[in-house]
Amino acid sequence: MSAAGETAVEVADLVVRYGSRTAVGGVSFEVPFGGVLALLGPNGAGKTSTVEVCEGYRPPSRGRVRVLGRDPWFDHELVVPHLGVMLQSGGAHPLARPGEMMSLLASFAAEPLDVGELAERLGLVPFLRTEYRRLSGGEKQRLHLAMALVGRPAVVFLDEPTAGMDVAARHTTWELVEQLRDSGVAVLLTTHLLDEAERLADQVVIMRDGQVAVAGSPAALTAAAGIERVLVRTRAGLPVEELTLSIVELAPGEYEIADLGPDGLGAVLDTVVRWCHRHDAVLTDVRTVRPSLEDVFLAVTGCDT
Fold this sequence. Notes:
Rossmann fold; Alpha-Beta Plaits; six-stranded mixed beta sheet; four-stranded antiparallel beta sheet; globular; nucleotide-binding; ATP hydrolysis activity; P-loop_NTPase; Spermidine/putrescine ABC transporter ATP-binding protein; transport
């Protein structure tokens, strides 16, 4: 495996067409070893087509894609043994058993993970001899993750990795992804759970209509959103109109001061404190609310996840 920081996945000006329809129109990004990139966007944004080209499942119509320094379409047999791919639909035979599937995939790898240890980590031990068709949605999802990781891949593609999982399994999966990153694995993640992307991703790419709408670290994207609020709670009936800033009444005794800008927080708090002093008002709650990745997503795409 290459050193952390070196490029594992390179996508440059990628175009994917289906007949006359352009699904991906000039997308570029890189995923380094030891990095997690979250590819986000509403349904139909082009995420799946982009990832399928990276996985070597379809050729690009135009542009350059390199995974581990090779073209994943033309050098498919050389690239695929080093990839771990987790799909929402795992493609497992309904009568196959998790233990059998994990052991089979491990047998193809030069240095696989220990099947028993991985099964224990993901809570699969009680189901190793259960037919796939009898597993719950969350159990299948954990199995799909195990199948993607058992070969000790250098690059991992995770499609909605925690969909259908309970809270405990979700956090276990997050910890596994963080361990993959720390061990130098490159991770390309697609998810509709924006808190998941905000926790795991070093870089985020939000797609819209087949193109990159915005890209950057979660911290940079939320900072650039420029939306910060101060929530102030006090008793009802005070002359809040005397506050010189925009105040929107949310409920009796609770008000919102919005759109502070980069330098406005100190002035707002100073104004609120002086106003409270004049009116002998006691603040029962003051909170600053910073934008989340979900706020950025909604602003960029105009729709929910």
